[in-house]
Amino acid sequence: MNIGHKITELRKQNNPPPPHYAQEVGVSREMIGRYERGEVMPSIEVAKKIADALEVSLDYLAGGAQKSAVDKQTLKLMHDIEDLEPAIKDKLLYLANAVIRDAKTKRAYAH
Question: Does the pTM exceed 0.70?
Answer without folding.
Answer: no
